[in-house]
Every structure is written in C-alpha cells, then in structure tokens.
Amino acid sequence: MADKKQADDARDRNGRDQPSAEEAALSARLRDLGKQLGRHQFDGPSDSEPGQRSTTDASAMARGFRLSTELVAGVLVGAGIGWLIDRWVGTTPLGMIVFLLLGFAAGVLNVMRVAGVVATNTLDPPDKRQ
Amino acid sequence: MDPIHQFQIQNLLTFGHIGGYEIAFTNSALFMLIALAVIAALTIGATSSRALVPGRMQSVAEMSYEFVADTLRSSAGSEGMKFFPLVFSLFMFILVVNMIGLIPYTFTVTSHIIITVSLALVVFLTVVVYGLYKHGLHFLKLFVPSGIPIYILPLVTFIEVLSFLSRPVSHSVRLFANMLAGHITLKVFGGFVVMLGSLGFLGSLGAILPLGMTVALTALELLVAVLQAYVFAILTCIYINDAIHPGH
C-alpha cells in the first residue's frame, strides 16, 4: 500500500514539474514492480540487500524449528565448556555453575536473534536494526 | 516392534581394521551412495537434454538450482555465490537423504548425529577459516558489539563467543532430532496398528485411529524433511554471510 501511495505521489508531482521528472516516476514504478516481483518469488519476503541477515526470508515454520533448538544449544555449550574446565582445572562446581549461566544467556541471545527482537548483527548501524 | 531398530548400523562389507576400528561399508554408507546417485541422476541426467522448454525432471533440477541460488543471494549477497556449490550440495544431500528415509524399509542417514555434526562442522569451519582469511583479526570484531559500556564489554563478548560456539550444536541437533523423533513416532503409531489389529474385530476397529494418525504423520514428516533441508541451507547462508561481512 505504501509503495502504491509513493508512486501516486511521484506521478502527481511530475504532472506539475518538468517533463524529465516523468522518467523518474517511471523508474520509481519500475522499482516498485521489481520489489513486488521479488516479494512474490518465494514464500517469504525476499530481501535482495546483501549483508542484512534478516531471518524474515525463512518461512514462519522454519523459524519455529530454529527457535526450539537455539536455547537448548546455548545451554548445552555452556554446560559442556564448564564441565571441561572443571575437569582440567579442578574447580568442580564453580566452572559448571558460571558457564551454565553464561550459556543460558547465550541461548537467550540466540532466541532473541531468531525472533528478531535484537539486531542479528550487533555491529549493524542502528538504522539497519530490525 | 522396537522403534529404535530402524536406526541400527549394519556392516554390509568389512574392509579391515585400522587401529582397532572396523572399517566397513555400512547401510548408512549405502544409502548415502543411493542419495548421491539420485542427485546425480537429477542434476546431470535430467539436464543433459538442455531443452529450452524444460521437461518435468529438468524443471525440478532447474527449480532446485534457482531456489538455492536465490536463497543464498538474498541472505549473503552476490559475493556469497562463490559458496554456492557448498550450499547446493548440502541442501540436495539433506533433502534427498530425508526423502529416501521416508520410504518404508529404508535407512535415514540424517537420523545419526555423527552425520549432522559433520555437516554442521563443515559449515562452521568454512565460516571461521574464510572469515579469518578474508578479514584477518577484524573477523573477531564479530564478537565485540559496538556501543557497549566498557565495564560489561568482557561479559558481553564472552556471551557472544558462546553464542557463536552454540551454532554448530543447534545446527546439527535440529536436523538430527527432528528426523529421529519423527521416525520413532511413525514407528510407534505403526506398531499400534499391528498390535491392535491382532486383537480380533474390536481391535481392528480401534486400529483405525492410529492408522489415520500414521497417514497424517507421514504427511507431516514429508513437510519436516523438506523444511529441515531448507532450514539447514538457509542457516548455512546466514553463517556464510557472517564470514563475508563480519559487522559492517
């Protein structure tokens, strides 16, 4: 809807402005059409911008499958590292406790990234965050 | 009636022993070769005619190519296309192996975690090696978010590292667990049908319920088989994007 409105606005402006603006409107409409075509190409909306690691192009079910394991994986990795450190250093309960908690934090971070609550890439400039 | 029996590895051909380990051609290896033959038949055989208007099989091959190419291009950019052979191989292998596993009396290769971990580690190591090769130590900035106060930066960085390390775990466990659980569920409901069916007329009447469940679950498993291959491929694309553009 927003795209259509934009195109209409552009056309209105061109009516009043110089004729060269007509080409701009045409290219704007072309771009809109390209965007719409791109959106229809897959199930999910496709994003042709490279670098934006959007998870929206995975279908909703694919995202659901991801959500279910990301948290578990974080906790497992934390527990595994804690257990190994305990074995090597001999700080038996401490490493496990600390790394389990850190792993839980990492798992929550994973889940939030999949859900798109936090930016997938923390180094992205703020305007690119979703 | 053992639902786990279907996942048993059987030696079909023993080559010898290396360091106390038996080197054998197993049923898992056999079904991997079958999958390879199916993929080769699809991609080489079906496209050999090179028809301008594709036939049925050529259309399937072209669609799978375009699907993976578009997925990769949309999440990793055109620069990521140099990884297309990797992503396409992973996608086709997992898809075909999952599909073959759905046929009764076959073996599901991806229901063994050693297979999925190997595939996930290939992706993980590709990302790490290529990222370090392309960006050097700048790749490590992936773990250091910007705009974080200095006093909690070490903690956040550590959580980021753990989050990065958990990727191959979730990547492999997801595929393995879905295939394993789905096949066990199918087997259990199939077992119910047989057990109830042997109990006479009323039992046979009752067996209709698990039979319907099995039919529905088969459809669900078909969906899961395709979806898991897709999820594996798209996560590979997302991780490769990290190696190409680490925090820009």
Helix-strand layout with pairing:
The complex is a heterodimer of chains A (130) and B (248).
Chain A: H1 2-16, H2 20-41, H3 60-89, H4 92-115
Helix pairs in contact in A: 1-2, 3-4
Chain B: E1 11-18, E2 21-26, H1 27-45, H2 56-76, H3 84-102, H4 113-135, H5 153-197, H6 201-206, H7 208-244
Antiparallel strand pairs in B: 1-2
Helix pairs in contact in B: 1-3, 2-3, 2-7, 3-7, 4-5, 4-7, 5-7
Q: Your description of this structure?
A:
The complex is a heterodimer of chains A (130) and B (248). Chain A has two domains: 2-41; 60-128, no CATH class. Chain A contains four helices and no strands. Chain A has helices spanning 2-16, 20-41, 60-89, 92-115. In chain A, helix 1 (2-16) runs antiparallel to helix 2 (20-41) and helix 3 (60-89) runs antiparallel to helix 4. Chain B has 248 residues and is mainly alpha-helical. Chain B has one domain (5-244). Chain B contains seven helices and two strands. In chain B, strands 1-2 form a two-stranded antiparallel ribbon. In chain B, a hairpin with a 2-residue loop joins strand 1 and strand 2 (21-26). The longest helix of chain B is centred in the C-terminal third of the chain and has 45 residues, at 153-197. Chain B is globular, with a radius of gyration of 22 Å. The mean pLDDT of chain B is 89. The A-B interface holds A 41-42, 46-51, 53-55, 57-59, 61-62, 65-66, 68-70, 72-74, 76-78, 81, 102-103, 105-107, 109-110, 113, 120-124 and B 70-71, 73-80, 141-142, 145-146, 158-160, 162-163, 165-167, 169-170, 173-174, 177-178, 223, 227-228, 230-231, 234-235, 238, 241-242, 245-248.
